[in-house]
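Can't paste images in this forum, so I'm doing it all in text. The chain is below; anyone willing to post the predicted C-alpha cells underneath?
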Amino acid sequence: MDFKVVFIDDNLDVNEPIVQNVRKHYKNADYSHVFKNPQEGLDFVLENINSRMIVFLDWNFSGLPTKGIDILKEIRKKTSLLYVIMMSANPVTSFPAQSVIDMMNEENFFFLDRSQDIDVTFGLIDKIQKNWVTRFDCILEQWLINHPECSDKIAFRTFDQTITWQKILEELRKQSTIGKSFEKMVNQFYIYQFTENSEANE
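Text version of the structure:
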C-alpha cells in the first residue's frame, strides 16, 4: 500500500460511508484502521510513525475527557510531518477559542466539517498526496522502495553512531535532531551545488 488512512472516532466503523468512500476512491490506500478508542488509535499511529499516513481524528469522544486536540498534541510530540484531519459535525465556531488557536498553530493539519460533501474529503487527501511528492522524507522513502539494496547502506557517521539510509528516513519522520540536521545539511549542499554550477556557467 502507498499510504495508510487511520480513523480515530468513537462513532465510526469500517462500514461507515466516509470509510467506504475513501476505500473505493483510493485503491492504493490501506484504509482498514478504524479506532473507536482514542488511546488505541494514538498507540497505532505512534507505532507506525515511519509510514506514510493520514489520520482522520474526531474532535470529541463521547463520555471521555480526551479531546481530539489532546491526541493531536501527543502526535506532535513525536512528529510534525504526519498529516492530521480533525473532524467534527459541529462548526469550528462552537469550539473553545484556545482549542481553535492551538489547531491553527499546528503544522500539516486540516479541519473537516463532517456535514460537507465527500468531495471535500477527497480534496484534502489529494492535496496531501501532492505535498508528499515534494517532501524530502517522501522522496527518500520512494528512492529506498526503488533501491531496497541501499536501505542498510551507510548514509553518514557521527562520532558515536553509524546511520543507514533507512535510519535516516525514520529520523526524518520523527523530526529528531539527527533527522532535522540531515535535511538541513542536504539542503545546504544542493544550494551550494546549484550556486557553484550557476557561477561556472556564467
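The longest helix spans residues 177-200. The mean pLDDT is 85.
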